[in-house]
Amino acid sequence: MSKRKYPPFTQLGMLSLGLIVIGGIYLSAHIPQHVPLGPAIALLAASTLVLVTNLTLLRRVDGFAWPRFFQVARWALLAYAFTAGMIEYAFLRNHLSGGPLVILTLSLIIYALQVPTLIAFTVARYDTTDFADPEASAP
Amino acid sequence: MVETTAPLPAVGTPPVAAAPPRLEFDIVPRKGLVMVAVAMVMLIVAIAVNKLWPLEFLHVASGAAWTIIDLFLGLVLGPIMGSMSIPARVEFTTKLMPKMVLIMPTVVTLTLAAGWQLASKLGTVQSSYPQHGWVVASFIVVGVMAVLALGLLEPANIAVLYELKKPRPNPAVIEKLMKRFIYCAGVLGVMQIATLLIMTKLASS
Q1: pTM listed for this prediction
Q2: pLDDT per residue over B116-175, tens digit each?
Q3: I need a surface site. Which of B33, B154, B157, B163 has the fewest CB within 10 A?
Q4: Which of A90, A104, A123 is closest to B8 using CA atoms?
């Protein structure tokens, strides 16, 4: 029985999420004082790097079910973009502005991309040959 | 560090255990989307009007639902499901999990967004608040729970539903994903106790 090898996609995805969560907590914990943005920017950059690296590693997997991955990812992206929008709305409603707003907005974009890729990967890695099955499609 | 997955048995190849029966269900129940939309409109209005009662209601009600669901799923339903026969577990899963796809993201979004707005209104989010350390502790607990829920629990939830939709679901995959879901829900349930401790401390100070 041959085995398909995957990069540690879930672990790296959780690391990426964890980095932006730490950045968000760091910023939130200092409100309304002035907060040095350096650590938050570094965490955001690291999170983005992990996300890009993760997808790059996944691209190298032979025979990965990309059609299923994108099918699931786009529906999940719709849902998580909405929840990110709700959180952004709460930030804007509270007159958050300047550097912290930019960093938190970019963090929300990473969140809205990262979670759908994690969901899509978990579905696609177990996908076999039945992608054409119309009943197995998303709503 | 590499994850390895053996390819699933091809159609016609008997898997290790008997394939569970295929049941008809929607991965995302369309009727439930109406309820989600109503809840989201309530949240948008509550944040816009910025009144204490609607914010408190949404934060407390959805936070209580989040806590109770995690505790009940992880510590009560999980062990029960583990002891069920495979056909019974599959049937239960196909009825429970699609609802969880809608319920959990909704209650989490309601809890966090209404909670942030409430804390901003009350001033408890400000670093000058005397119990600020407890507030930051709640951020940390929620952050850890969010990473676990978004990184492990939700993907397992969706993936098990896709597996059950297949013409020939693989029981090994379902077993693996359901274990991940239930264990994760159990850990989240235990972490919810920390949330309860922090929130009751803040409410009584």
Answers
A1: 0.82
A2: 889 888 888 888 888 889 999 999 999 999 899 889 988 998 998 888 888 888 888 888
A3: B33
A4: A123
Show which of residues 73-112 on chain B sit within 8 Å of chain A, judged by CB atoms: 105, 109, 112
Nearest residue of chain B to residue A79 (CA atoms)? B105
Number of H helices, E strands in chain A: 4, 1
Closest CA in chain A for residue B120:
A94
* Domain boundary assignment for chain A: 9-136
Q: Which residues contact B84 (CB under 8 A, 6 or more apart)?
A: B92
Query: Chain B residues with CB inside 8 Å of A76's CB?
Result: 158
Residue type at position A121? F
Measure B71 CA to nearest chain A CA, in Å.
Answer: 23
ipTM of model over 0.95: no
Report how far apart the first and last C-alpha atoms of chain A are (Å, whole number).
34
